[in-house]
Amino acid sequence: MNKHFRPIILALILSLGAGCARNPITGKSELMLIPEQQDIEIGKKYAPEIEKQMGGRIQDQALQNYINSVGQKIARVSHNQSFKYQFTALQDKSVNAFALPGGYIFITKGMLQNLETEAQLAGILGHEIVHVVARDVANAMSTQIGIDLLLSAVTSEKTPQTVLTVAQLGTQIMSLRFSRQDEREADLGGLDYMIAAGYNPYGLVESMEMLAAQNRERPIEFLSTHPAPENRSAYLKQSITTKQFSLANTRIGKEEYKTAVLNRLN
Ligand SMILES: [Zn+2]
Predict the structure, then answer these.
(1) What is the reported pTM?
(2) Structural domains in the chain (count)
C-alpha cells in the first residue's frame, strides 16, 4: 500500500466507528483503531489458521466440552456478553494459552498437562477473557501488526510489500506481546471473574506460580507473549485478601479436572 493510501484507509476505519472506547476493566478511555464490531469478524477469520498452526484440536469432544463449559462459566460474568466466546484445546505441546479478538480462546495440551485443578484452568481462561474484554488483542494487532496489513488481508489489495497471507498473519498473531500493565489488569480482572463465577481464586495464583517455575527451567511460550509483571504472586494474594467472599464455598475441582482432562490426555 503506498503512503497516499493510508490516510484513506484510516479515514475509512474511523468512519466505521473506531476511536476512543472505554475499557471496562480499567474504566479508562483508550484509542482503538479497530471498531469493536469487527472483533468477532477478525477472530473468526484467523481462528482456523491458528488451530492449524497449533496441530489442530484435541480430538476428544468430551474434553473439549469440559474446557468450553469452564470457560463459559467465566465468560457469563464478564463485562462483555456480546462477544462470541468459545474455548478450544489444541494439540500443541508448548505451554500456552491465547485469545483472538471477539472471544476465540485457545489453550494447548502442554498447558493442560501442567494444570492440576479446574480452578487453575478457570484462572488461565479468566485471564484470557480479560484480554478479550479489554480488547488488548485487537489493540496489539493494530499496533504490532499494523492496521493496514490486517486490512490488506481482509480486503484483497495487491501491493507486494504489504500483502500477507492469512498463514503469515497467523504466525504474527501468535507472537503478539502484551504489556506488563495489560498483564496485571488481566490477572486482577481474572480474579474478579473467578470469584464471581464461584471459583477458588487461588487457582490463578497456583497457575501463575507453576508457569514461573517452568519458565526458570526453560523459557515457556505463555510468558514470552504474556510477560510476567513483577511481584505477580504477591499482588494476586494481596488482592484476594481485600475481597468480600467466602473462600469455603469456592470451587477447586481437583478430581473433576483429573477425570475430565488429565486421565484423557495421552
Ligand atoms: Zn496475559
Answers:
(1) 0.88
(2) 1
